[in-house]
Predict the structure.
Amino acid sequence: MSSKLLTFRPPRIAQFLVAAAVLLHWAIPLRLELFVNSMVGTSLITIGLYTMTAGWWQFKKQRTVICPTGTPTSLVAVGIYAITRKPMYLGIFMMLLGLALIVGSIPFYAAAIAYFVVMDTVFCPYEEGKLLRLFGDEFVRYRTRVRRWL
C-alpha cells in the first residue's frame, strides 16, 4: 500500500483528503464542532503557505527535483531547511490544520491527521532513505542537526 501512495504527489493527497472531509462533513447529519477558531486557523494557513513556498523556492533555487520520487541533485540544507527537513509537507499540514480550525468538524481534523501520518510513515522514510544513499555522511550530519518537523 505504501508504495502505491508514493505514486501520488503530496498536494494531491491533501486535495483528496479535503474533498473527502467536505463530503463527510455534509453527509454526517450530526455536527460536532470542535476547537473552532477562525483567526488561529487563518494564521496557520498563512504560515503554512509561506513555509511550503519557502521550501519549494529553495529547491528551485538549487535546481533540484521537487517530486518526492525524483532523484535530487543536491542536499538542500539552507533557508527554511535549516529549521525543518520537511517544510513543504509541514506547510501543507499547517494549512490542513488551519482549515480544520476554521470549519471545526471532525472530518477536517481527521484529514489533517491522515495527511501527517501518510507523510511521516510513507514519504519521509522513503525520501530520507534515498537521501542517505545519495549523500551519505552529509545527510547524516544534516539529519542530526535539523529535526524532521520542528
